[in-house]
Amino acid sequence: MQLNKVDVLLGLQWGDEGKGKIVDVLTPRYDVIARFQGGPNAGHTLEFEGIKHVLHTIPSGIFRKEAINVVGNGVVIDPIIFKKEIDALESRGVDATDRLKVSKKAHLILPTHRLLDAASEKSKGKEKIGSTLKGIGPTYMDKTGRNGLRVGDILSDRFREKYEFLKHKHELLLAQQGEPGVDPEMEQQWIDSLGTLRRFELIDSEHYLNEKLREGKRILAEGAQGSLLDIDFGSYPFVTSSSTICAGACTGLGIAPNRIGRVIGIFKAYCTRVGSGPFPTELDDEVGEALCRIGNEFGSTTGRRRRTGWLDLPALNYAIMINGVTELNMMKADVMDDFDTIRICTHYLVNGKLTDRMPYEITEKVDPVYVDMKGWKCNLREALRSGDLPKELLDYIAFIEKQTGTPISLVSAGPDRSETLFRDVKEATTA
Ligand code: GDP
Ligand code: IMO
Ligand code: MG
């Protein structure tokens, strides 16, 4: 029997590309939406019917009644944040009980993981990662160090004992750094929040998802963060602690590599980055300011200002390569509606040598080389509605398709579900 494949949607830049919006837009085409890595460091925004909603742990298919949403084994969950998300959904009349399932193998973020995250950042001083301080790094460290607590453990009689053991270990580490242990009130809130997690079906998600494939159901894997924040291929050490790339969907869900279907890579028509780390095309001028202001580039999770810059093709091509991207989705082109000129970085000058490859280390010696393109100078939201895209935007799209050898199958020009244009990829230019 021919098995279905799992499509993957993931970010190709430094996160916040608009994954939440597009997963929500695509959900009617799928039966199951499954998050495969990351945790509440993610903030995925959806907008429809005048309502804006930000999800952190829960997959972005949750607003569509027909879809089942799965939090996969590769995800790390903070029960307090999970409860807040569920409460927020319920306050909007969304009952997720029957449409959200959680892997028993997903790891738990303890209150002490968050304290360790903060202590680690403090000790790094100016070299800090700029973490979201959600305890992501320490939780994945305990996972790979084989010390972690998993969601399935909350069903065990020995859960409290296991929790106390790990907490004690963390408090010794904190004491070594002169940091206090966990606040009892916070700890109680965490323990109480486990009740919300218990209300959901806790599953062997690898079996569940493979069964769904055998039944001919369609699955979309939802990535968090972006490829340039990947633990192996991102701008290390200024990265997150999980595999944000396509391979992460295999390990984070228990899906074999030969079961991966389309790989949808999502990118902004420019670049942003929140937190520390190299950013070759960063703009510290009024253009960067305009991208931030018009694009409302403030973190969905932390509210921090996102750094902004021009589109970076060497970085985009690198992400396309390591993910096996089959199609691109371009977001937020509308932010540049008023720009006379739009620049695209095609190469870097590294120590005076021209290259189109991401160097091992991106330092200040990496100078971006740009091609200038004419801006479209019109309201793209309106153009999208009429389906009549301006020539300059079509030129911009064609240039990116040619430089990446990958078709752009979707263009987004606004945060709302409706502000989305699907393109026939067969018609799209490829190199
Ligand atoms: P995610 O983490 O990849 O899901 O992205 P975020 O939700 O963190 O950030 C994307 C932001 O851009 C959100 O505020 C979205 O509502 C908004 N957004 C998404 N697509 C578009 C678009 O095409 N145009 C504009 N102007 N905003 C968009
Ligand atoms: P979504 O899914 C943008 C960044 C942080 C920091 C680095 C490490 O919304 O795209 P961590 O908390 O993981 O230890 O932080 O990664 N970061 C993100 N940036 N979008 C995200 O998620 C991010 N998740 C983490 O700012 O630089
Ligand atoms: Mg985000």
Question: What does it look like?
Answer:
- The protein is α/β, with parallel strands linked by helices and 431 residues long.
- The chain contains twelve helices and 20 strands.
- The strands form five sheets. Strands 9-7-5-2-10-1-11-15-19-20 form a ten-stranded mixed beta sheet, with helices on both faces. Strands 14, 16, 17 and 18 form a four-stranded mixed beta sheet that branches.
- A hairpin with a 2-residue loop joins β3 (44-48) and β4 (51-55).
- α2 crosses α6 (184-198) and α3 runs parallel beside α5.
- Residues 427-431 have low confidence and may be disordered.
- The structure holds guanosine-5'-diphosphate (GDP), 6-O-phosphoryl inosine monophosphate and magnesium ion.
- Residues 15-16, 42-44, 300 line the site of magnesium ion.
**Alpha-beta classification:** alpha/beta
What ranges have pLDDT less than 50 throughout 5 or more consecutive residues? 427-431
N-to-C span: 35 Å
Fraction of residues in H or I helices: 25-40%
Roughly what is the average pLDDT, rounded to an integer?
95
What best-fitting shape do the alpha-carbon axes yield? globular
Strand order of the largest sheet: 9-7-5-2-10-1-11-15-19-20
Taking all Cα atoms into account, the compactness measure Rg is 21 Å
Note the beta-strand portion. 15-25%
Give the beta-strand count: 20
What ligands are attached or bound here? guanosine-5'-diphosphate, 6-O-phosphoryl inosine monophosphate, magnesium ion
